[in-house]
Amino acid sequence: MSDNLQAHIRGDVLAHVSGNLRRLRQAAGLSQAALAEASGISRRMIVAVEGGDANISLSSLDKLAAAMGVRFVDLVRDPACAPSAEINEVAWRGAEADSTAILLGTAPATTEAQMWFWSLGPGERYAAEPDPAGWHEMLFVTEGTLRLELSGAAKELPAGSFTIYATDQAYAYANAGTLPVRFVRNVIS
After folding, report:
1. For residue 92, which of 15, 100, 101, 160 is within the disulfide window of CB 3.0 to 4.6 Å?
2. pTM of the full predicted structure?
3. CB neighbours of 145 closer than 8 A, spacing ≥ 6?
4. How far apart are CA 67 and CA 41, in angstroms?
């Protein structure tokens, strides 16, 4: 599934993206065409996301947020909840029932810091698009063995280990084992 949010899953973070994107775009005084030009995301995709009819990658949501001058969490947060550092929303589901990414919270950084809890079922793989220069991730594996692929090179991270790396390169998480892999992911920009 790559890093796409699934449009048919409601009750997850995607339930808020449609309305938040429309509201924030209008507040920024941008037409869909202007947002498409500023973000590099097609107008067709923006129309589909605002209509709740599309899958969109997490990195594409980052691009839309940057083009509107808001944070990623502003697009995914439940607008009915008071702003706080806690988000606690599912932002990605894989094909396996044991595969999810939960955005736990965010904190101020140069731009932003996010804390996620990830789980990958056996055989699951999540491929991410490179982020802009200056973004980093810190991973801590709590259960199983995570296979981290950075620019084509693979590294096995068993439970209890961690790594820190720049995300301005191709990267992916994979579970080559027979049991779920769980890890904490911090994103910093």
Report:
1. 101
2. 0.61
3. 156, 157, 158, 159, 175, 176, 177, 181
4. 10
Sheet holding 153-158, edge to edge: 125-128, 171-174, 145-150, 153-158
User: What pLDDT is attached to residue 13?
Assistant: 57
Residue 166 corresponds to which amino acid? A
Residue written as token pair 């199983």: 144
Write the DSSP symbol of residue 83.
P
Could you give the dihedral angle defined by the CA atoms of residues 62, 14, 9 and 34, in that order, rounded to the nearest 10 degrees?
-70
State residue 7's pLDDT score: 32
CA 47 to mean position of chain CA atoms: 20
What pLDDT does residue 3 have? 40
Contact 85, 105 (CB under 8 A): yes
Q: Dig out the tokens for 50 from the structure.
A: 């605002």
**DSSP 8-state secondary structure symbol assigned to residue 181:** E
CB of 128 closer than 8 Å to CB of 172: yes
Q: Chunk the chain into consecutive blocks of 10 residues (it has 189) and report each block's average pLDDT, rounded to whole numbers.
A: 35 74 95 96 94 80 92 83 68 82 75 88 94 90 97 94 91 96 93
> In this structure, are residues 135 and 144 in contact, taking their beta carbons and an 8 Å threshold?
no
Residue 148, sorted as left (phi over 0), alpha (psi -120 to 50) or beta, turns out to be beta
Q: How far apart are CA 148 and CA 172, in angstroms?
A: 6
